[in-house]
Amino acid sequence: MMRSAFAGLAFAVLATSAQAQEPAHAHAPGPVHTRGSEHAPGHAQSADEAQVRTVVTAYKDAIERMDVSQTPALFWADSEIFENGGVEGSFAYYLEHHLGPEFADLAGFDFRDREMKVEVDGDTAFVSETYTYHITFKDSARAPIERRGAATSVLRKRGDEWRFDVYHSSARPFRPAA
Predict the structure, then answer these.
(1) Can you give the pTM of this predicted structure?
(2) Left (φ > 0), alpha (ψ -120 to 50) or beta: where does 35 sit?
(3) C-alpha–C-alpha distance, residues 5 and 8, integer Å
């Protein structure tokens, strides 16, 4: 419970800090360039940031392959997962009761327009992502799903290894530009 409160506070502090550093037009559509952004000009990526990006990318790649057999190694055993307003519990629980069973019905899962921002502070990394995703079903009578998603994560370094500690994602119907 304490870690959840800390993570929520950390997200609020990170968001407030980023807003204070961004220009007034930063909330317009398009990529946002902040400290730790993969798009920031002249940004030297640290070894820790590279490892964090590798972990986050490995998770998204596994979802696209619909092969989550190796994903438990990306999450600490005491991790916490939150999705679309719900508390999913640990990653092991989420995988067994939510994510894993969902893949049985899917024919394809494709992420598009992925953007990631990473900020490493000691043994803690804060990650924010935006993306769209497209899902197709084995049952062709079911309409494909297209959503705009966002994820925020806290990764922790224990020893020399980075893994997800807190993962939160949400989505809404995709609204293409008019």
Answers:
(1) 0.74
(2) beta
(3) 5
Cβ atoms 138, 107 nearer than 8 A? yes
d(CA 31, CA 112): 14
3-state secondary structure 30-64: CCCCCCCECCCCCCCCCHHHHHHHHHHHHHHHHHH
**Separation of alpha carbons 143 and 130, rounded Å:** 23
Residue with tokens 């993570």, as numbered in its chain? 7
The three state secondary structure string of 19-38 is: HHHCCHHHHCCCCCCCCCEC
Give the DSSP letter string of 71-130.
GGGGEEEEEEEEETTEEEESHHHHIIIIIHHHHTTEEEEEEEEEEEEEEEETTEEEEEEE
Edge-to-edge strand ranges of the sheet holding 86-89 = 86-89, 75-83, 161-173, 145-158, 124-137, 106-121
Calculate Rg over the CA atoms of the chain. Answer: 17
pLDDT per position as a tens digit, 113-165: 999 999 999 999 999 999 999 999 999 999 999 999 999 999 999 999 999 99
